[in-house]
Amino acid sequence: MILSYVVTAGAFAGIRFPLSHFIDMEENRLLLYGIVAAFSVIVYLFSWLTCPKMVSHKDM
Q: What distance in Å separates the CA atoms of residue 42 and residue 45, rounded to the nearest whole number?
């Protein structure tokens, strides 16, 4: 759980830092939140598709 907070903060900062060179983030917060939400959906879908395959190969 602690790791998820670090990863989430890192992803948010990792997206915000490069975009701040191209657009003004103070004026476009909604755009930033939309990009972060889209990134979150992509990562969730990736984990949803790959985790069952990884778990089914493990011996329980």
A: 5
